[in-house]
Design brief:
The protein is of the alpha/beta class and 294 residues long. It folds into 3 domains: 65 residues, Winged helix-like DNA-binding domain superfamily/Winged helix DNA-binding domain (Arc Repressor Mutant, subunit A, Orthogonal Bundle), CATH 1.10.10.10; 98 residues, Periplasmic binding protein-like II (D-Maltodextrin-Binding Protein, domain 2); 89 residues, D-Maltodextrin-Binding Protein, domain 2 (3-Layer(aba) Sandwich), CATH 3.40.190.10. Helices cover 40% and strands 21% of the residues. A 5-stranded mixed beta sheet has the order 4-3-5-12-6, with helices on both faces. Helix 7 links the parallel strand 8 and strand 9.
């Protein structure tokens, strides 16, 4: 049986990008964190992380990416179970959807604060691709969702422009070989932007790496597996910035939007919308644009 504590440590190490930073986050020694990851690797019989000698830089292996997907789901289910059991009977339920490829490290902390300050509310949060979140919202399975979309694509409660940046090793673009791409799954707007830009320019491409998580794409680009298109706030110091000099045209910006029923966004839901604005505003510099009600 998988140990949730070990899974939580694995997720923390990958999110922080190093054993050193993860140790500081969980208030443990680096050696303890490293031992926990090795114990998990021994349990599953797979190498989950690629490490340097200092432990300052780590990246998930292919098996590690698969384990991360299940780890996040299991931890989310465990947190949900704890929340449901601790919530008062008859509590109001708010169902929130967030993008699979959104950096949730700050958001989860803010959501925890919201839950603590609203004991009468049972918050149910799930992640997925933005297209799926929109469908679930339309079907009435969600009350609010933070999605990535084409600018101005329908009413929303607030929206922020997302400036996209090509990142990767410029040496991967030399010669006539197909451009290796680090891709999010089908339906992701970043994926669509990448493929459309290259095919419009007549440049061949190939899928070099797939990942549902932002951390996975960031790590793959940093490791030199391919190039990708990321929002500017998600570009890491170790990512090379690419552009017209390498034959890559500036991609049109996308949009982060909070969508939901404006009539229902009152009371606790209004407080939750404020939490989402705080989380997104910390990553995206321009202030949110207020839109027509959803």
């Amino acid at each position: 049986m998988l140990d949730l504590e070990l899974l939580r440590t694995l997720v923390c190490v990958v999110d922080e990008g190093s054993f050193t930073r993860a140790a500081g986050r969980v208030h443990r020694t680096q050696s303890t964190v490293s031992q926990q990851v090795r114990k998990l690797e021994q349990m599953v019989g797979k190498t989950l992380l690629l490490r340097d000698r200092t432990g300052n830089q780590v990246a998930a292996t292919e098996d590690g990416e698969l384990m991360l997907t299940y780890a996040r789901k299991l931890l989310a289910m465990a947190d949900e179970a704890e929340l449901v059991l601790s919530a008062p009977r008859g509590a109001q339920v708010i169902r929130l959807g967030v993008p699979e490829d959104f950096d949730v490290s700050r958001l989860t902390a803010l959501l925890a604060g919201f839950a603590a300050s609203h004991p009468e509310i049972r918050l149910e949060t799930g992640s997925g691709m933005s297209a799926d979140l929109k469908a679930r919202l339309a079907a009435g399975d969600l009350d609010l969702a933070l999605i990535k979309r084409e600018p101005g694509d329908g009413p929303c409660l607030a929206a922020w422009p997302e400036l996209l940046t090509w990142v990767g090793d410029k040496r991967l673009l030399q010669g006539r070989e197909p451009v290796p791409l680090v891709l999010f799954p089908q339906g992701c707007i970043y994926r669509k932007r990448m493929i459309y830009a290259l095919e419009s320019a007549g440049r061949p491409w190939r899928a070099a790496y797939h990942s549902q998580s932002l951390a996975g794409v960031q790590a793959a680009v940093a490791a030199g597996l391919g190039v990708s298109l990321l929002p500017a706030f998600a570009c890491l110091p170790e990512h090379g910035v690419l552009g017209p000099a390498q034959g890559l045209a500036q991609a049109p910006h996308t949009e982060l939007a909070i969508v939901g029923d404006a009539k229902a966004a009152l009371g606790a839901q209004a407080d939750l919308v404020a939490v989402l604005k705080q989380a997104v505003g910390a990553e995206v510099a321009p202030p949110p644009r207020r839109m027509a009600s959803a």
